[in-house]
# Entry
Amino acid sequence: MELHKLTLKQAAEGLRKKQFTSVELTQACLAQIKKRNKDLNAFITISEDRAIAEAKLADEMIENGQATELTGIPFSVKDSIATADIRSTAAAKILDNYTPVFEATVVEKIRKAGGVLIGKTNCDAFGHGASNENSMYGAVRNPYNLKKVSGGSSGGSAVSVADHMCFYSIAEDTGGSIRQPASFCGVFGLRPTYGRNSRYGVMPMASSLDVVGPMARTAEDLAIVLKYMAGTDKKDATTTVATVDNYDLIAEKEISAQGGSASGGKKSKLVVGIPKEYFEIEGINEEIKKNVLYQIEKFKEQGAEIVEVSLPHTKYAMAVYYIVVPSEDSSNMARLDGIRYGVREKKIKSLSELYEVSRANGFPEEVKRRILIGTYVLSAGYYEAYYKKAQKVRTLIKSDFEKVFKEVDILIAPTSPFPAFELGEKKSDPLQMYLADVMLSPAAVAGYPALSVPTGFTAEGLPIGTQIIGDKMKEGLLLQVGKFLTKKD
Amino acid sequence: MITLEDVKKIANLAKISLTSEEEKRHTETISVVLDYMQILNEVDTEKVEPTFEVNDLKNVWRNDEIKKCSFNQELVKQFPEKYAGMLVVPGVFENSTEE
# Structure
């Protein structure tokens, strides 16, 4: 039995039945990392010794009957999320020597439940990118084709899960950073509702959009992880007090004619909305379109109601996103200055030079670009024209979603208009790279949850992702639908 | 449109030193991005309020209490340069390091 290829659910059951130990499970994952990481570059830091020590503790927990579903299961964490005593670089050299003294709340929760942290995954520096090529530790490669990108920014997390180096990963999504790499690498990736999970300890990019979410190989596994991550946190004032659902139990339910009402839908049957603007996007890959249309057929067969809907401000979401995000970004990045922690340049004459040189050497080009754009659009004379205008259009995008979720339970669309592209293909053209998020940024700008479901492959053998967008706090329904779409007949 | 001078000015405000090649490249790429933003001018937003926070949260208060920090010493260890447990930085004012 290849232990690392089990699902989280199967592995948890095997541990409980004592078919194998957590140490064996962890060693299987570490062996896979050793075999594959030099080609894929999914990890920046591998915490081998510590993982084995945690696995031994987990085995004791299991022995003493204190195990949870996550006890003894190896997982990875995106490197822009703080892990106590394990280096956290966010894939930028300015934090090359940075080891947090505190833990992100979501990681703390999982480790309390007995999770085994196996390492920190590569990403676009501070989450800035859609291909993982903006990492100062090298690009991540797609396990389905080494010439292709993994997607980003959580590329290392997606690959660590897709290539069986661990069972799930904790990542971060500002405008698509979980969903897009999930679709490129053939795994599930959930962007939860804004406020669902604590962001304490997550290095901020754009604070009014950032969310933390899980990536895994099945919808059920994702549901289990979300259950442990979610909830309010005194350390993050933006977390919601809404109850944490039993996501795994909801995900178990069948999508029948009653599917909608069973999971809080508005009608007796599940109503699936097809947002027409998403299918009119220029340059959308035909194979992807066909695959998503096939998923819609599956809903029809189950007796769901299918309606075409319109979210008229969809085409403005990218422009809103790339004004709001760099604005918040440029403020958040100001803390990285080489003064109290991180890498400080030596042989410096003045304080100003210390900032300027530490930041110049510690940030990759894209981080600098975003700081510059943000500084520009927030500067005197431009604030009204860019920032305030964008926040007003954001209101319209949000009200598009509010209106449409009075009529439908879920929206279905592609995750990305194209499959994984070649390394280097878009790197020199930032606008083209930004447009990779065209189907991902609307839900992010408005704060809605969305799931990327692996629903097939192109003729070239690259994964295709279908995106399911739900109403706020309806993660359970998204996971239920994710399970339905990937059910093997 | 953004000019080379604008880029130099905002790089100075953002405290990032750029090579002249970087200044040129950022001027070109940022101009393209800002041009794309013009699409927002198609939207009439005269009677629309801006959204700064999506969940309509208002002033989440907590008491301003002093708490013990358990990792002061660990934080001090992270200082890139220190003297007797204090953080060392170059002089804030011009020439103040040359005493």
